[in-house]
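Margin note from the TA: students keep mixing up input and output lines. Inputs are the sequences; the output is the structure of the whole complex. Example:
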Amino acid sequence: MDAAPAAPETIEEAERQIARGPLVLNRRNFSWLTERISAVVEQPAPRWWWVAFTITASAATFGLFCLGYQISTGVGTWGLNHPVGWAWDITNFVFWIGIGHAGTLISAILFLLRQKWRTSINRSAEAMTLFAVTCAAIFPGVHVGRVWMAWYLAPFPNNWGIWQNFRSPLMWDVFAVSTYFTVSVLFWYTGIVPDLATLRDRASTKIRKFLFGIFALGWRGSNRHWRHYEMAYLLLAGLSTPLVLSVHSIVSFDFATSVLPTWHTTIFPPYFVAGAIFGGFAMVLTLLLPCRAMFKLYDVITPQHIDKMAKIILLTGSFVGYAYTMEFFIAWYSGNSYERFAFWNRVFGPYWWYWWVGMLFCNVLSPQLFWFRWCRYNVYVVYFVCMCVNAGMWFERFIIIVGGLHRDFIPSSWGLFIPTWVDIWTYIGTLGIFTSLFLLFVRFLPMIAMSEIKTAVPEADVHLVTTPGGKERTR
Amino acid sequence: MMRTPAGHQVYAMAAEYPSAAALYEAAKRVRDAGFRRWDVYSPFPIHGMDDAMGLGKSWLSGWVLFGGVSGLLTAALVVVGSLSARCAR
Amino acid sequence: MRWCVYEPLLSQEQTTAVQSAFGAGARLIPKLDRADVILALDSDFLDCGQGDLESVRAFTSRRRVNSSKDSMNRLYVVENRFTLTGAMADHRLRCPASQIAVLAHALARKILAATNDAGLGGILGNLQTPAGGETFDEQWLSEAANDLLAKPGASLVLVGSNQPAAVQLLVYAINAALKDVGQTLVVRQAPQNPRTIDISQLASDINDGRIKQLFILGGDPVYNAKRGLVEDRDTKLPLDWGDLQKKVSEIVRLGYHQDATSAISHWHVPLAHYLESWGDALTAGGDYLSIQPMILPLFGGFSEIELLNALLAGPKTEGPELVQETFRATNPPGDFQTAWSRFLHDGFASHVQPRDQTASFNANAVGPLVQNSWNLPPAPTPDSPEIVLTASYAMDDGRYANNGWLQELPDPITKLTWDNAALMSPSFAKALGVRTGDLVQITITDKGAVAQPIKRELVIAALVSPGHADNSITISLGYGRKLPEFYELPYAGGALKERPGIAQQSGFNGYFLRTAANPHFAVAGGQGIESVRVTKVGHTYPLSITQEHFSIEGRGLVREATLERYREDSDFAKKVPGEEELPHPPPSIYSHPPLDAPQQWGMNIDLNVCTGCSACVIACQAENNIPVVGKLQVAHGRAMHWIRIDRYYASRQPYNQDRGEWPQNPEVVHQPMPCQHCENAPCETVCPVNATVHSEDGLNVMAYNRCVGTRYCANNCPFKVRRFNFFDYNQRPVGKRKIVGALSIYEEYFAPLTTKGAPDIIKMQKNPNVTVRMRGVMEKCTFCVQRIEEAKIGAIALAGASADKRIPRDSFTTACAQACPTGAIVFGDIKDPESRVSKMKQQDRNYRLLDYLNIGARTSYLARIRNPNPKMPDAENIGVASLVEKLPE
């Protein structure tokens, strides 16, 4: 833990301590930022990019084949059975939706809270959100038995006079996820328009000029545009903020409104939201730490950024640990033998190691390393913890879903879930789709919001003056 | 009607400033000079520039409110309408 | 011409014993409704087998209690494996089948000591007493004997038909000493054909070259005749039927399929199915029944009587003429045509009435017979166990091997589908070092007539079965009916073009071990047996078991108490802690359908009379077009049965199944589980597309063509009774394997590449009133909504202008309730207080499952009552399925 600071002796000393470190290191100016960030898009793709993309695109292609196979042949190609009606499909859905939450949190809530450090990570976090939600949206779509009838989920007048069942949390899911995706796309696209204009203006080929020109929507950087733009951005942030909380709450209702032991719990909405942010930040770091190294963005994505995200992981990870504990307490306190058994079974039942390794070690214990400053500033430790959390959050969803289903009320119907190769490759396929889309994103679009990060350097402040000591201070 | 020393008609005038602060100061003076058809260009939004240019609050929020309310009403109509239709026998 | 009858599972020993004790042509009928105390020695009289439906009805009539004042009979069972009878027992003793003789002997001595019956004394007089210590519980037998003795004339000792004739006779003597003959055990005369020979006689005639031409009607003797029927004249090696059949110069086979017997016959004549033929029959009790065809022969087959008529050069007939001839011989009263129509309409001839004979037990004639054939094999040991061959509950003697419904019917006790297995007790399995699914090799060595001993070997999967006797292995017959060569059959209509093949991949052929000398059990020291060895092979075999978890985990699902406890506290079923019925249902924030139809449907299942026979499962499958999914899909937990029978092993000593613990001497409880039709159904609120909703008459209904298949309803069903179509079971081949290179893939896994559509013969089998479901939709028990609607239409037509369009009370029922042999399942209008179901639900034993969830199940259960004898050593372990007994008030 950080040592407790001694009491400051002078005002200057106090100010020095209060002042936050610079968000862009080495006093990089606007020009440097534009050059460095645009270079990623404008220079030829490095060899590692091609290697990585080949691998991820192959996985994505095979995953799509698996989806086609499953749709054409039947849900039976997965390992589902009669007690376990959902397994990897909905696990993956909740996993990906959860990951998306970090992007929205960074872009919306941190924006409203005026956390300027978000500017170096928000673009890629938002892109990650979109790709994660894309992956997530695959599963509710294809997990149904008759995909070709999935349009029954939309309110659609028909000759039977049958409408949707708005009591069903799956129905809420449809609207929650589609709203989330729509708002996330709008938010991300609104944010990227000025940068597309920058790339258009720098473009050296006609195709680039044309395409960036189309998507930049004629942006000129006029302050009369900026005025509306900033309002739009603020409104979108305001609209997205409840979504950060609502989407995963509604996803948690899929379980919380049911009658199954371990599903039927009121703690689920906050527990799921905390878990989603927890998992989402881990995924942001998982993607950004390699990008930072590969594209030499050390001055933009600084140790300070990593430290802040690690702190958020520590906070939300502790929430999650608290929720886990509380689930056990409530199960015991309820006196209900079905609840008590279900939680006992979680720890000592057939899926015991999922709990010990996935939930306890990966999700609760590993983030506790972030109490130590050294750990937060060591990228290898950070990366290790993030990988633990990525895996742990998948296991958590699996334990909730399959753990709840495989042994519920009637012991005669108890069973186990064993994944088939189609289950496994469909999941790997979505990992492929996700990483492929992210690789394409870093290659073709500015992965750091240039127009936003420029507001975080001191020169952007119109009240900037230079003090005699050479330090910049604002009036 | 202004003309250039070469005799061309002046369509508009532009000036480049080295920093956001300088631009800000210049904008305030242009505003105070009473110009109407003018603008400030920058690669990022400059905090305080709206005031410096004498622009009011954006009207966008009104439209968003309208969209939000009509969306909410439509959703409520679909839910209530379809649930009522279900109960009718 | 000679007439030989061979029924593989019919016991020659029993026929011999009955005829020598009660005279030629005698048939014994147990009258279980008159018996207060019943002791069954290796007798599975509740197995719904031959003649047992009457026994089941009679037995359960004395188990049915309407209030705590009613009395019940008491059932003691001694058996080596769990049977349906053992599951119903009040006291059950595990005993190897070969040791029943020892136990019967000990029982006879106790009965003799108490009654001094001269007949029993005469028979018992000089019998060899068992050497060494008895392997069973002495107190158990004494108290059981005392209980029998306390009810002279109202007790009954039954012995299984698989026991040797001497044991049968000894048990008849015990019954005679207990004054049961003529009371609970009556004798009837059965018609006899003096020219009938048995298969051993036929075999030796063939061996002697006396048979020139053989007609084989039905059956499959190459597959299921006893092995070692005769010895070869030259080599002195035993000959099987397959060897013998090759010695006959002309064989004509009349059969359903080209099976192993047809393969070595000269002519194969297609046999018409019994549903395509005219016929008649005699029941075990002697009633005369009619058989009418439901359809003209689909594939131009001949029935047995048509072929026999042709052999006798009778005139060619196409209708009921041949049956009418026999019917005329029974002297029907009045006009023949009227009597005939009545016979067809009723299904039985009321003028042919079997009468009980006053025949008494002939102890003097029996004595020497028992003396001569009395043989006490040594008790089996872990190194030399006994092998018991029994009938399967589903396959009969193997004749249903090609029937997917029966192959997929979970065995009532083991819940095994598509296979048989070597059942063994947990401790014996531990000694062998095997677990369920491990292959074991069974080797029975017979003393050869010449130098070489003869080894009979079978490799079979083991299945650990709690409640099985130690040092004993049970194998059910009728499986492993492999067909040597299965050509494309020349059937019409596009059906059966492919290899039928269902039987080919299913189970192990226990007939390999079944010799003429030891047809029922083999134990070292038995008739000509040198040794019996069981060894672990070291490979495993996939067994498809529908219920993996057999511990009830202390949950109040099956509620059970002793009669004594029930009399003290008649509301015990409603007092399971944590599972009490909700006194005031909490308000609901959802709107519900009004449930205001004039009739409200509900169901009640009396666990006290349910034997677990699973007839309801098949009835439901037939009625509701439920697909067969094949062995692999059953193994994956995808069986489609809408009603299943949950079976739990209950024991007072708690055991943790997860840690590999087994109950030592458990009792079995059965619980039929259809959809409970919850009034606040958890499945309905979660369906996003309103595909499952409630009707005004209280049904939880499914709209298949609205279902998109999210499976959320099944997840949220507390009873897990919803069934999902994981593949296109009705349109694509399922359960067939295709060999692709080194891979063997089930065809459902590449369904789009297979041929779509069901053969016409399969389509004809479907119930036209029930939708055939497609891939990707959920299905479940509908309370036979098609029958409800049919009855409603009938009622409306009947009502005419009258305002009351209700269906007459109890005028129809569901398929499961209709098929239930004991009437345990009752369906009807719960709004009508006089309906049968309402009366059942008014009983104090009535309870609903998981009521604390506020689901309001429409299906309720009547708690199970056992009637243990408090003096018995195991009385404490009876009636313990629910925790009721354990917890203080």
